[in-house]
Amino acid sequence: MEIRSAKYLISNPKVEGCPAPDKPEYAFIGRSNVGKSSLINMLTNQTKLAKTSGSPGKTQLINHFIINNEWYMVDLPGYGFAKVSQKQRASWEKMIANYLEKRENLVCVFVLIDSRLKPQELDLEFIANLGEKGIPFCMVFTKADKNTQRETAANVRSFIEKMKEDWEFIPQKFVTSSVKFHGRKDILNYIGELNEQWYKGDAEE
Fold first, then answer.
1. Which of 3, 63, 104, 185 could be bridged to 75 by S-S, CB 3.0 to 4.6 A?
2. What pLDDT digit, counting tens, does each position of 27-59 carry?
3. Domain coordinates of the chain in residue numbers?
């Protein structure tokens, strides 16, 4: 799939304010500073579509982008460390949970995981929570250019092995580098396949 157009649409603190659920939607989320905005910009081949920052906690709302006028890409606040109050963090957590559980056109959540690190409990807990609620997701291992291929492969393998302790089926995974555009084609092709299924199902109803 090719991205012909990508435009910022709207930001919301509540799922009720999101665009009409008439198109397939894909949400991107991960721990703060995992490279989420850089990945979104890489996928859309734009440098400033999503705001990047060296300081965690930059994304604070549900941010919608319209892609090819056919589907939505959503940038969600990061989970975990951010220099905010407990009250603000609790507010974000509630906002994210409401979005993930109530957004009826949400096709898949792309959970971003830093490939430079050993398995992090926070990521495993977030994924387990998605599984418990039956929310479809896949995993995107970011910053693969920051390590050797061997180190990246070892960390990805460790994460998957950790998941196998609790999961019978391991969802789709991608290894990416926003600097080298690695993984871009695979992710966009995957979204393209899911879009076809979504529109086919919509036409059959």
1. 63
2. 999 998 899 999 999 999 998 888 754 444 456
3. 6-204
User: Could you give the CA distance from residue 83 to residue 91 in angstroms, rounded to a whole number?
Assistant: 14
Contact 138, 50 (CB under 8 A): no
Q: Which amino acid is at 198?
A: W
Under a CB-based contact definition with an 8 Å cutoff, are residues 64 and 101 in contact? Answer: no
Question: Could you give the CA distance from residue 143 to residue 151 in angstroms, rounded to a whole number?
Answer: 12
Sign of the alpha-carbon torsion through 18, 96, 105, 102: negative
The span from the CA of 110 to the CA of 38, in Å, is: 14
Q: Are 92 and 71 in contact (CB under 8 A)?
A: no
Cβ 29 vs Cβ 52: under 8 Å: no
- Rounded to whole angstroms, the Cα distance separating 25 from 106 reads 5
Q: How far apart are CA 42 and CA 181, in angstroms?
A: 6
Question: pTM score > 0.70 for this model?
Answer: yes
The count of other CB atoms within 10 Å of the CB of residue 77 is 24
Specify the 3-state DSSP secondary structure of 39. helix
What architecture is the 6-204 domain classified under in CATH? 3-Layer(aba) Sandwich (3.40)
* Rounded CA separation 202/205 (Å): 5
As beta bridge partners, residue 201 has: none
